[in-house]
Amino acid sequence: MSAECREPGPGGHSGASGSGACLPRSTSAPWRLPRWRARAAAAVLCYVNLLNYMNWFIVAGMLLDIQNFFQIQDSNAGLLQTVFICCLLLSAPVFGYLGDRHSRKATLSIGILLWSGAGLASSFISPQYSWLFFLSRGVVGIGSASYSTIAPTVLGDLFVRDQRTRVLAIFYIFIPVGSGLGYVLGSAVLQLTGNWRWGFRVMPCLEAVALILLIALVPDPPRGAAEKQEEAVETPRSSWCEDVRYLGRNWSFVWSTLGVTAIAFVTGALGFWAPKFLFEARVVHGLQPPCLQDPCNSQDSLIFGILTVVTGIIGVVLGAEASRRYKKVNPRAEPLICACSLLTAAPCLYLALVLAPVTLLASYVFLALGELLLSCNWAVVADILLISGILRAGRPDSYLQSFLSLQQSFLCCTFVIALGGGCFLLTALRLEGDQALARQPGTGTPDSKDAESRALLSGTRVAAEDP
């Protein structure tokens, strides 16, 4: 509590005592952290994000061997990611609510323990208990939800404005890098050991290091700590329902969320099934025999992992730089860049799929271009292979027909990604008006003190910078 005096006291000096009228004013001292500590915390959070997305896609790098071990058909194998994503989606709002009201550091630590323990336990499951393997993937999804929801908000409270934008961009670069390294680690461990189980036993060692670093180096800053603001009146905290109603009336947020969902649908489907699709394409071309027993040739997982890392990094950097430059002349730059990249990615993915039976080289080239445009951002997987199972049911039982069913089930991704581009065009139409409304005093939820910060942490801006 401090006092502000409007009239000088005795002796001509202003003071809290004397004849001057003093008006008490409540101030909130800015929360400070040494620069090296903030950078160290950001590095740790980026490292954990890397491991998080490696866990998302390590199964895809060893999918053929896991299917052979548990005797899982394609349509049921798709449930592995369906269970993972459903658990993630259902638990993410819960962790978001808890993260706003309780210790974020404790919640992050619990999330790491959940996904690490579930991953390690899944490596000891017997073939007759395949349902336990599905259940373990659901627990991994719950642990991942806690981290994906809360970690960006911690970064948002450690850095301000331009620094925050740069740090969040670096944080999200580790999504494609982690996704690609998940394939690489799975295939590399499989080649070295001949057993897919060791992939799930190596990850907990890396995650134990991450947990120690998180506890030692990452602080738990107060909400809004990075913004130096004075609070004359303490505003009430909004409820979860009020937050949802406010966001539901923000149409640029709604349309951009639908656009990101389209990106997630396609990148998730490609991320989980593309290595197997490429493997079956090589079998159709007669370049290798079908895999009927462990271990399977994981060359395609390795190649696809490297492609994902390289194109993901380039795509994120190009998207962010294009947004930064174009935004100087057009305030709608971010959704327009997203829309253009998605509408261009659709024909690239279509050509990659239809050319696969004809020429593998062209298929790889267009697949790389499609990944570059998508940037492998925020994979939220849908069970594409349920479509594949329906297509295959009415066809002769041959390896060629299996490949063609998988190919045609993928074609729906080109239409979904085009719809995503349309959603971002609609975002562009509403963005300026919604931003102006959010900046007006007295709008939004009671605790929304910085509209730009909340937009960043909700993912809208990061998604727009990441084509």
Describe this structure in words.
- With 467 residues, the chain is mostly helical.
- The protein has helices spanning 35-61, 63-70, 74-101, 104-122, 130-158, 161-193, 197-217, 240-248, 251-284, 299-326, 333-354, 360-374, 385-393, 399-410, 412-439, 451-458, 460-465; strands spanning 2-5, 22-25.
- A two-stranded antiparallel ribbon has the order 1-2.
- The two termini are 47 Å apart.
Explain briefly what this protein structure is.
By secondary structure, the protein is an all-alpha fold.
Write the layout of secondary structure elements.
Elements: E1 2-5, E2 22-25, H1 35-61, H2 63-70, H3 74-101, H4 104-122, H5 130-158, H6 161-193, H7 197-217, H8 240-248, H9 251-284, H10 299-326, H11 333-354, H12 360-374, H13 385-393, H14 399-410, H15 412-439, H16 451-458, H17 460-465
Antiparallel strand pairs: 1-2
Helix pairs in contact: 1-5, 1-6, 1-7, 1-9, 3-5, 3-13, 4-5, 4-7, 5-6, 6-7, 6-10, 9-10, 9-14, 9-15, 10-11, 10-12, 11-12, 11-15, 13-14
What is the succession of H and E elements? EEHHHHHHHHHHHHHHHHH
* Total of helices: 17
**Low-confidence regions:** 1-28, 229-235, 376-386, 388-392, 444-467
First-last Cα distance: 47 Å
Radius of gyration: 25 Å
Shape: globular
Q: What strand line-up does the widest sheet have?
A: 1-2
Q: Compute the number of strand runs.
A: 2
Bin the helical content: over 70%
Structural class: mainly alpha
The average pLDDT value, as a whole number, equals 74
Short descriptors:
467 residues, mainly alpha, two-stranded antiparallel ribbon, 17 helices, 2 strands, disordered N terminus
